[in-house]
Amino acid sequence: MNVLVVAAHPDDEVLGCGGTIARLSQDGHEVHIAILGEGITSRYAQREEADQAGVKTLHEQSARAAELLGASRPSMFSLPDNRFDSVPLLEVVKIIEGVIDKVNPQVVYTQHGGDLNIDHSIVYRATLTATRPLAGSPVKDLYAFEVASSSEWAFHQFAPAFHPNVFVDISRTLEQKVRALQCYEDETRPFPHPRSPEALRVIAQRWGSVSGLPAAEAFQLVRSVNSIT
Description:
The chain is an alpha/beta fold. It is 37% helix and 18% strand.
């Protein structure tokens, strides 16, 4: 099975579904990652002032994280960090459609639409458009994932709220997820920040307690198309 993870920023893929990526890879599935935003440039007053060496380093860290999780090298794009709303939605859709044409995924994981981060919301909407169930579309299942420090910090003030209804056992891959996030040296934070190793473990244990598992990642199933014979 081919699986595609569509993320707005480097580290979203690990925070949202790193344990699941590792599980899928261990089970023999091919996992591809598309990261649409360049990352970190929003930390500068002007995008043009950004340290391009820093952007390159961040992308190299994405490659190391993907390798650790067993995924293919990520496809990196250059949408402006935290400025996706300055780009026509159609352009974002076309990027995702191009990746789908190349990868031919049966399953897609992407950002949740009610996140605090505007880029996440736009990627969610663009992914829904790019994966619309037209005749011949390879995509059968579409899931949305949460991102620690963005989904919960919206405090359910933006629709749609995250209502997970699918849980993946990551008890054997949780530490891979933690190590993969640590590839992003400038993105990890000390506890009690949600992107700390301790918090990642607590989040997984929390969803595990909800679903009767030692540790889990939570997803909202957006759409599933099944052919019952």
